[in-house]
Amino acid sequence: MYNVLTLNKIADCGIEKLGANYAIYDNCENPDGIILRSFSMHEMELPASLKCVARAGAGVNNIPIDACTEKGIVVFNTPGANANGVKELVILGLLIGSRKVIDGIEWAKTLSGKGAEVGKLVEKGKGAYVGPEIMGKTLGVIGLGAIGAMVANTAIALGMKVIGYDPYLTVDSAWRLSSSIVHANSIDEIYAESDYITLHIPATETTTGMINSETIAKMKDGVRILNFARGTLVNDAHLATALESGKVARYVTDFPNDAVLSMENVVAIPHLGASTPESEDNCAVMAAIELKDYLENGNIKNSVNFPNCELPRNGARITVAHKNIPSMLANLSKIVSDNGMNIENMLNKSKKENAYTIMDIEGAANDAVIDAILAVDGVYSARLIK
Fold this sequence. Notes:
Distance between the termini: 13 Å
CATH class of the largest domain: Alpha Beta
Shape: elongated
Low-confidence stretches: none
CATH superfamily of the largest domain: NAD(P)-binding Rossmann-like Domain
């Protein structure tokens, strides 16, 4: 029986994927796994029993990744599970960022009570809410992952010219892209040629504040910027100046803050990108499947701190999360051999400074081999799965 702690309400369709061998708790001192959405784990003491954390969503800034890694706790996310929900909101943002529909709706409400005059007042006042069509305009997409690719393809279908930039474009992502999308060689090409720019990249040390006075100066006058990725990608003070001058005509974001809410020509949406029942269900199901496969088989898929490492199960299995350092595999193999076991199948993968090894073994496996492996310098965690 595995104990799973849920730190947020998780859709039933996800919990059902775990099956009868799982006890689900919303308060548990010794969980094998955690499933959560937006709950912040940063002040939480990580239980010694914890083996994995599955985030039902893409962002993991609410999880202490470094602390988890040091303990060999695998952290999963669910890339692409909420992509369609976010994509639809981005397309909506593209339209309402171009046409002043929201402004017009709010103005129209002020005409309530004017009786027969409403029609005339509408015709007289609607000119204040004119905005350009998107057809034929150029959309620059920064980040062509699951969401960025869907946005780019939809924009093509809407008659836009699309330029994409992603130095880390995967083969799978490339296959999803329309052949009509132009791949920019540099991010400066996006800035220089786009009428609209949409951001679909993670918040990191290098991307924080990437939209600033310097990069905005490289953009077209009257550019419209969409940020449905992370609020910290944009320097708020520099954005305010650009909006005041008209250099940026409109800013649409799913990450409002106090500074942004006080700016003119901003459409601030209360983080609704993945707020659809379909997205929540998809994320819950994917997170549960990832957690289940790891706990039962030691397989890793969609981890943010350890490499993807999947091997068909063949009897007893030893899994080791460790540093990516020389001689590690030789040390692990020797320990297994010294404990009277033979390695029938083995897979090792690395991800930057971290690595993960799966060994299917033949022979009488016991906890002594795990204790010996845990004593090896550079090993974060080890498990025997029978």
